[in-house]
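Work Package 3 (structural annotation) set out to generate three-dimensional models for the target panel prioritized at the project kickoff. During this period the team completed the workflow that converts sequence records into discrete structure tokens, so that structures can be stored uniformly alongside our sequence database. As a representative example, we reproduce one entry of 246 residues exactly as it appears in the project archive.
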Amino acid sequence: MGVNTHLYSTDSIEVVVAIPAYNESETLPIIVKELSLFLSEKDAILILDDSPFQVHAETQSAVTTATKNSRCMVFFLHNNGKSGRGAAVRRGMQLSVERFPKMKYFIECDADGSHQVTDIIKLKNSGIICDLLVGSRYLRESRIILNFVIPFVLNVPIKDITNGLRRYTPQALHQILFQEPINKGFAYLSEQAFVIHSSQLKLAEIPITFIERVAGRSTVTWREILASLRGVLSLILLKKKIRINV
């Protein structure tokens, strides 16, 4: 599972940065290397890799080389087959809750470089007290339709409900994992926010700078986009079924 996990105690980890990936051998070593420079022995980078085994092996080797002097824990959770971003992140949440008893925050971000390391660290170090903190790409003048429609329909007070740069508390993770998931892909981002808000936990946003991927090709297909739209509609039916785990 690991790259350098043997060097660290699971009891020392306070922040987990989870990066779902699929065929990201070009971009992942770049972002992990840069990110590791800002992290300490109390932090872990968890790579949730759905790539085919050969690509996974190449990626893990490149990441190992890139982080050989890192102070933070770096490890992989490999699934041999594309399960969807949401399913991958959920596996990371479950593993982190089980493995790191002193975890304070679980952060997720993209593997393609669209989330800048400075913004990931900004989110990590933010003093805003909340259970879900979203790095928000869009200002009031944005014309991204889903970010108007979804929060309005689901009554969730988040402007950028589709962005994957997020920080969660363990309480938020417990609520998410307590629910049986409806979505596996990108719609799971909306589902997570919906579950947290419905569980009466606190949500907040901070501004970030979003850029296009720095290398490689997008792995999001039109089929996944349509599935995400259907998934969002299914959340409307979930409104009265959210169970609060207390």
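The longest helix spans residues 222-238.
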